Amino acid sequence: MTLTKETNKTLLYITIAFLFSIAMRLIWVYHFSGYEQFNYNDQLMINTNDGYYFAEGAKDLLKNKVVNPEGKNYFDQLHNANDLSPVTTATSQLTAFFAKILPFSFESILLYMPVVLSSLIVIPIILIARDLKNLEMGFIAALLASIAWSYYNRTMAGYYDTDMLNIVLPMVLLWSIIWAIDTNEDKYLLIAAFDILVYRWWYPQSYALEFAFFGMILAYTVIFDRKNIYNYKLMAIMLFAMMGTAGWIRLVLVLAAFTLLRQEKMQKYVYYLFGAAVVVFFATGGFNPIWLQLQGYVFRQSIAGEQEGLGLHFFTVMQTVREAGKIPFETFANRISGHTITFIISLAGYLYLLYRHRIILFSLPLVGLGFLAYFGGLRFTIYAVPVLAMGMAFLITELAGKLPTLRLQVLTMAALTLAVLYPNYKHIENYKVPTVFTQNEVKVLEKLGQIANSEDYVVSWWDYGYPIRYYADVKTLVDGGKHSGAVNFPVSFMLTKPQEVAAKMARLDVEYTEKTFKFVEEHKEEIKDKNFTVFSNIEQMTTDYGFRDTNDFLRSLSDDIKLPQKTRDIYFYLPYRMLNIYPTIALFSDINLMNGVQKPRPLFFVTHRFNNQGSVVLLGNGVVLNKQNMSVKIGNKTLSLRRFVKTTYDKQMKLHLQEQLINFASNITLIYMASYNTFLLVDEKTYNSSYIQMMVLDKYDENLFEKLIDTPQAKVFRLKI
Fold it and tell me: What is the mean pLDDT of residues 519-541?
């Protein structure tokens, strides 16, 4: 088959843009490839916490772990019961597939998958431009979109997450819809439906965007083209692909519908088939979950209350997640187009593109979702990137097209393209985000994995849940997906309260977690029918111990209460890096669960940058240490210290403690962690917390805990009770 000149140019542009996108993502690899602490198994580690979730699933698929396979389906056989391994997710399955067929290490596949897959974004952009008879626009847009701030940030080398295809797939859907509407060819019916099936498999939360595209087609048909029977074919097959049922059922219905729609004798029944698709779509619950994944970002509260039982109130995680907060306009603009000026020009270009090419109206769902970021969180900016890039590219080609010679047109397009690419390139050059963990931290977790059983639990904050599970092959109470206020409360309590009550809460929460898993499994049908309410662990503990007020139950932990029978070991993983988020951790348990009133914030000030000026040490933020009388000045207040503590690691990595008692009437302690070049100023409550005592000061109750691993990066303790 002879390729046309236009096809050859299309393939050339796609190849160049694809290689350009990959090359830009290799800059991060170049920056850190020689940094030993960021390497594991002779490869750079990934730089997103959530990536370890899918990596765990892929690893379990490859290991083919089988536990009690009788009566279980295939995927249930691949991991331990209730370990939350995502073996059924598309990302894990695709990763395992690549690991099976490609001659690269597992770590290399995790590192480079986002580089290659995210760069596929250039293909639908250029193909859409081909439909508009403006391939140069597509080429420029592909270059810009592939490296724009937010798209790069969430698809860079090592950012192993669903975002590597989360924009590629809807852009393919947009391309298939545009070509379907413009050509009325049957093959685009199947392409659009298949893309929806793949998109839903890859990212189940895609429901809202799929329906938004469907709504645009419906509006376009009603307003501009209501007599075109092809549009009803397209909507019918999309509805079958979007139904609220199993993927294989939707695939069968899509293939059946496509077979029928291609037959000439069936054309008079298209409207009936469309009606049937609407009925089936709603009957299968297709409309119900459309906006659920957005509600947590748009309609959020800082305190969430239970509606039944004791009516407990928990601090929710959404207020602490940066991507769920309102962002400044400059950040919003930069993340979409690289610069505020570029964004404004791109928006103007997009509006002009809509005016000149009505078919681009189908891109409005992507732009709308991207602009939602300004109100509902920065993560959504990624959706507007490729479409706004098309707006900028359209203006560039339109301006160049006004010039008299081809040479001048090419030079102008090249110069303007370089100008809009430059701020995005500078961002890439300066965006030196580290890996999630260092090599020394991974060694701690690997050693923990050699000690612990896969059914044991590790207590740590949810930020580290996925990496802990991946490297140590254990269970965790919280992680990046399981971190509601109800599950965070007990873990926060364990880390920020004294060791005695923390130890008891750890045993209680672990055993209640396992008991809840068993209860849900035995009553899943009743729970599905809402005949049972599964209460939070802390609420169940309160009622089981005969209390109606959770505050009374928590106070009882200081007494000699009867704990559940021990079924497994529990480990505390206390990393140094947790120090910087301690105040956030404390928020989740410093709350009156009965009325939702937040308790006063504890004094907690940490600094890694300070200036020693002889008699005083400037700690930053208006905090000054007077070394002569051992007092601290905080703003306009001068306060005496209760104690001054200095910690130092020797050459054998053993911690030494020097403690100077100053004024028992004071409530403030200053800790100088010399080996970390860190000062820590805390009140007495924080000083007595399990984390500070055990990790920072290496003081632990030997009746409650056994120290197993002791490094400057992290300490691991085993619970004895």
Answer: 79
Asked if 218 and 235 count as a contact pair (C-beta separation under 8 A), the reply is yes
Rounded CA-CA distance 701/552 in Å is: 25
Q: How many whole angstroms separate alpha carbon 242 and alpha carbon 212?
A: 12
Alpha helices in 4-70 (DSSP H): 5-32, 51-63
3-state class of 717 per DSSP? Answer: strand
| pLDDT band at 443; cut points 50, 70, 90 | very high
- Parallel, antiparallel, or unpaired for β 705-710 and 714-719? antiparallel
Do β-strands 668-673 and 313-315 pair in parallel, antiparallel, or remain unpaired? unpaired
**Average pLDDT in the 61-81 region?**
56
| Average pLDDT of the segment spanning 201-209 | 91
* CATH architecture group of domain 439-580: 3-Layer(aba) Sandwich (3.40)
3-state secondary structure at position 479: coil
Which pLDDT tens digit goes with each residue over 328-354? 899 999 999 999 999 999 999 999 999
HSE of 310 in the Cβ direction (CA atoms, 13 Å)? Answer: 28
Q: Which residue matches tokens 């088939």?
A: 273
Q: Which amino acid is at 26?
A: L
Give the number of other CB atoms < 10 A from CB of residue 137: 28
Note the pTM of the prediction, 2 decimals: 0.90
Chain segment 645-667, per-residue pLDDT in tens? 999 999 888 999 999 999 999 99
- Tell me how long the chain is: 721
Percent of the chain with pLDDT over 70: 92
Q: Annotate 353-419 with three-state secondary structure.
A: HHHHCHHHHHHHHHHHHHHCHHHHCHHHHHHHHHHHHHHHHHHHHHHHHCCCCHHHHHHHHHHHHHH
Interatomic CA distance for residues 476 and 632, integer angstroms: 39
Q: Rounded distance, CA 266 to CA 256, Å?
A: 12
Residues 310, 63: Cα–Cα separation, whole Å: 44
pLDDT confidence of residue 323: 52
Q: Start-end ranges of CATH 3.40.1380.40 in the chain?
A: 439-580
